[in-house]
Amino acid sequence: MKRYKIGRTAVALILLLLSLTSFSQTDASIVEFKNPSSVVNPKGYSQAAVIDLGNCQMIILSGQVPLDKNGNLVGKNDMEKQTEQVFVNIKNILTDLGGTMDNIVKLGIYVKDVSQIQSLRNVRDRFINTQTPPASTLVEITKLFREDILIEIEATAIIPKK
C-alpha cells in the first residue's frame, strides 16, 4: 500500500470542506467574528473569523499591518520594524484566541518592495517554526491602503481544541 504525506494546509482545507458540508446560512454558530483587544479595533471588518471544525478551530486573520493596538504606525520607512509589528499583531491575535504561531498553516504576504525580502525573512523566521514552515504566498504590490505602510500579512491557523 502506498502512503502519502499530507501537509498542514491540505489537512486544513479538507477539514474546512468537511465542516462546510453541514453549514447552512441559518447556522451562524459555526463562525464567530472576533476583534481581540490586543490589536487595533478595525472599522468595517473583523480581525479574525473563527470557524468551528469540531475538534479544532480554523482562524482566518484579516491582513495585519504595522499598527500598534492604539492605531499608531510602527517603523515609518523601515521594512524590518514594520514586519516585526505585523508578526506581533498576528501572534497577539492567535494568543488571544488560544493558539500559538506554530498553529499557522498559511501566510499571504503583500509587500511594496520585494527587494527587501531578506529583511522580511529575518523577522518572519523569529516568529514561525522554520523546521516546518507554513505554506506561504508573497506578492509585490504597488500600493496598500496607506502610503506609509510597506507590508500586510494575512494568516490562517488551525488550533486544536483542548
From TrEMBL:
Record-linked InterPro entries: RutC-like_sf, YjgF/YER057c/UK114
Signal peptide limits: 1-24
Domain of life: Bacteria
Entry annotated with the keyword Metal-binding: no
A single cellular component GO annotation: cytosol
Sorted UniProt keywords: Signal
Molecular function GO labels: deaminase activity
Pfam families: Ribonuc_L-PSP (PF01042)
Transmembrane feature ranges: none
Family membership: Belongs to the RutC family.
Full protein name: Putative translation initiation inhibitor, yjgF family
Organism: Solitalea canadensis (strain ATCC 29591 / DSM 3403 / JCM 21819 / LMG 8368 / NBRC 15130 / NCIMB 12057 / USAM 9D) (Flexibacter canadensis)
